[in-house]
Amino acid sequence: MRRSAGKRPLEGLKGCVLVGGLTLLPALALAAAPEPKTFRDWMAGCDNLKSCTALSLPAESADAIAYLRLERPAGPDGTVSLVLRLRGDWKKLPTALQLKLDGAPFPAGGKALPAAADGDMVSLSFQPAEIATLIEAARKATKLSIAAPGVAASVSLSGSVAAMLWIDEQQGRLNTTSALVRKGSGTAVPAAPALPVIMAKPAAGTLSEKDGKALAATLRKQIKQRDADLCEDDEMLVAADGAWPLDGDRRLVGLACSRGAYNVSTGFWMVERGDVAAAKPVALPEGEGDAKNMLTNADFDPKTGRLSFFAKGRGLGDCGATGGYAWTGTAFVQTEFSMMGECRGIGSDDWITLYRSEVK
Fold it and tell me: Does one domain contain both 64 and 137?
């Protein structure tokens, strides 16, 4: 069901702010967790397990995209990880990066640190001692500079201490020995909440593509009678409609209702025994529209019973929201949700996770 089209006015902007209600994204119902918080040039957020992430935000005018991503699980044994990402116009991908903190070599001695390449992205994972040194230095330092053959970039540290202090507060680490910033003598740290376990069911039953298209077409006519403006009748949208059997009686029907430059909004309804007049919208956490049954760039896999979406803030796909659900036999239950509220060249794999689960 994923579709993309040409450019909108937002396309081509170096950076765009989406926080404060995600005004440039579909109206997502952020029920999984509070939105990430911004601290000057950093952003931080935590998921339902109190696992927290802090991201530096690349400058909007930067030619090379560089950012730090700090992540820490909750609980007494939560270990900090810190990775540096660098994307540039490479002639040859580097195997090491040279770093400086406000002009001084980092780490001390100025040795280049090994980096690994994945496509056009170069990543550097810091060791525990380097992480501790960098966190301590961030109290006074303002910039981490990165150099590689033919590419130079920098990461602002402004707001990093506030972001880490906020993470300490969310995880109950303030004034403890394991705090990132405000350390103390305390040792009691709350345990991480339990990971939700979801039993997913694959779609059962049979439904030919022809019969599925016919069911979707009939439902589209019915929905048109209920609300003439809900779903557009664009030929490309109609061609993307689909239906899938969930069990012997129930069918999931997806109607592509609107499209923009790089987003397609699809509405999902449950139809029992072919009765489209009684079709019910499938209410989804993070769903759009009055019935919360609309998802952007949605995809359903009947073999696994998994439903996913990827709402792009712009065509580059470096901001927006992504998540998923699983069919349990009775309902579609949320399985994951991540978002990035600013368009700064950060790939979706590094967005801040606000909800996670284990799907079996």
Answer: yes
